[in-house]
Amino acid sequence: MTLKDIEGFEVSKNIFRGFTVEETLMQYDFPILLVANSPKKQKWLFKWCESIDHSGVSIWIAFWISENRLYALKNNKMSLREAVMLPEKKFYIFEAKNLFEPTIVIESFPEKLPIDFIPSDDISVNGTLLRQGVQNGERLTVRFHVFSDNFWERMAPLSIISPLQNRFQEYMTWTAHAIERTPKGRVPSSFEDWSGFDLTSVTRGSFRMECVSNSRNKQTEVLAKACEILANLSNGTLEIKSILEELGEEFGSEVIHYISLLSKFVSKFDLSMSISWASQINPNGFLAFDKRRGDKILSNLDEIHKREFLRKITITLTPMEAEPIRKPIRGQGGMQGLLRNLQSKLKPDNTIELSPEEIEKILRYGLNYGQGGFQDRLVGIAKVLQRVGISFYTG
After folding, report:
1. Distance between CA atoms of residues 264 and 268, nearest Å
2. Radius of gyration of the chain (CA)
3. Can you give the residue ranges of every domain in the chain?
4. CB neighbours (10 Å) of residue 246?
5. Contact at 8 Å (CB) between 182 and 173?
6. Residue 30 DSSP SS3
């Protein structure tokens, strides 16, 4: 294993110059997890990943950690897996013989790490298993662990808890609905009927909550698959467009809508959270979700919408909408040039193919300059574009 196999980009080898070890949190034959101070007195977490042959060189990961996160980690309120998968700032992986003197440093993301470098379960720094077992194997148990420096100690942020559970349950309900191909307007009651979320703990900078579905057997499998879709989106092994390909336009677009709502909520409040789920099929489901991942999903959605807009479209006008375009055109100018171009493309059956540039001009001239003159001749076609969902322009 070398850093060349990990996606990222190389940064200065001097990035850890002047760092000093403050505390060792885990040690076997040598320290494998430690807290270091930067010259600016910031706390950093360094975790050993593996040694390279017998060269004395090791692979490490390093990232800045806040006082709240460090407190939670040291007091069994946050697992090492959560700390690694939900870094608050930039995330580095490097090779070094001497810890703070790396030979190569890569800035990357935790989801790009080999699976062997990530703790496989929610273990504390002293080896305690922080994750409870499945309460009922026939049902889906889902646990949230949410972090934010904006949470007060022992104060449950109800303004976040209630909307978050609503966003998640909406996503789960409609994804299950889409996977099952339930006819539009009919949602199986088992997908709607979740037991309420229980707030199980509130600590400094975090809270936990848990819910259990009332679905059993096959329906539990569908709900678990909804969790897996979200996990694959979050870690980058699934793209938004794949949801449309798998579930189709009608069902997939609904799922994407609820993923978008959840992502916007997480991004707005700058939340970091792990979601664990357990069922008979997968007792150890886990995903990490935060503002960075949510923003990436939203950015991918924007790109999909942009690509859709950049494609040419064909629309059909009514005779009344087509008639103003066919009228004789007198004079020269930008508006007259646009109308002549549209006139040449308008077919006898009143269909017309439009490019993005033409759409932009039609909407701008037809809807934003007021009534009168040549603008009146574009109002009809502009309203058709609005009717089919093209209601914006890029100018």
Report:
1. 6
2. 27
3. 3-117, 141-308, 313-387
4. 14
5. no
6. coil
